[in-house]
Specification:
The protein has 258 residues and is an alpha+beta fold. It has 5 helices and 7 strands, in the order E-E-H-H-E-E-H-E-H-H-E-E. A 5-stranded antiparallel β-sheet has the order 2-1-5-7-6, sandwiched between helices. Helix 1 packs parallel to helix 4. The radius of gyration is 17 Å and the shape is globular. The protein starts with 26 loop residues before the first strand and ends with a strand. It comes from Microtetraspora malaysiensis. This is CAP domain-containing protein.
């Protein structure tokens, strides 16, 4: 179970989902101002989505089968470099469309764009975490010599939401970009996904897998959230991918502020 805890000044005992397989889910939600957290179990293996139900937005959302390509696939021109950089924006819009198609009975999520030099958003936090995850490759199983923090309640799996070098968490990453600074109370949640092989790296594959994992689905369908950013990084955050390409890592962040 992964859910958003209501604000309270009384400490709560957090109950975690103990029935899920150890390599099937990764989701986390945190709230402010008390800023408690609840983490689901984790999967960083290549997901299998063949038997999953079709997404509601599959017939209407654009670019849902887009595959993130390396810079070498684009001309070494200003336009080619621009097109390479714009891939993550296109993928984010595809994810947002698919997510909102699932939220048929609640307000759609938005992704406000920071205006002006130095303006940061939860999207910045998500992008940084995805890039760090690919650079450090700590997701997946706990192994000898691997620098990661085991999941609470699942010591065989690394926690993808805690950067093992900086110790950053979804909450600290949100606060680092200023999220919640002007809120009476706020909440954030983070979903993570990594896939390798052409069928598993697309926005359709990521959202399908999230929607078929309860902690992720709970974040996606939480009516309290008002914003969502989904950032990608080329490469796998899980070394289990080996040299298989393409490989893409996704980090999805949700937020609400009141």
């Amino acid at each position: 179970m992964s859910s958003l805890l209501p604000f309270s000044r009384t400490p709560r005992r957090l109950v975690r989902d103990s029935s899920v397989a150890r390599r099937r889910r990764t989701a986390v939600a945190v709230t402010g101002a008390l800023l408690s957290s609840l983490t689901g179990a984790v999967s960083l293996a290549q997901p299998a989505a063949a038997a999953a139900p079709a997404l509601k937005g599959a017939g209407t959302c654009a670019n849902i089968d887009m595959i993130y390509r390396p810079a070498s696939a684009f001309p070494d021109t200003s336009r080619g470099r621009f097109d390479f950089r714009m891939q993550t924006n296109t993928i984010e819009l595809a994810v947002l469309c698919l997510v909102n198609a699932e939220r048929t009975t609640m307000r759609p999520l938005t992704r406000p764009i920071g205006l002006g030099k130095g303006t940061l958003t939860l999207g910045t936090a998500a992008a940084r975490h995805a890039a760090d995850a690919v650079a450090l490759r700590w997701w997946g199983y706990v192994e000898p010599g691997k620098n990661c923090r085991p999941m609470k309640g699942n010591p065989t799996t690394c926690d993808p939401h805690i950067n093992p070098e900086t110790g950053s968490t979804p909450l600290s990453r949100a606060k680092a970009v200023g999220y919640g600074r002007w809120c009476t109370s706020f909440s954030v949640a983070e979903n993570a996904y990594v896939g390798w092989g052409s069928a598993s790296v697309t926005p359709r594959a990521a959202v399908t897998w999230w929607m078929n994992s309860k902690p992720h689905r709970d974040n996606i369908l939480n009516p309290a959230f008002t914003v969502m950013y989904a950032k990608t990084a080329l490469g796998s955050a899980d070394p289990a991918a080996g040299s298989i390409t393409p490989a893409v890592t996704y980090v999805q962040m949700f937020g609400s502020c009141s």
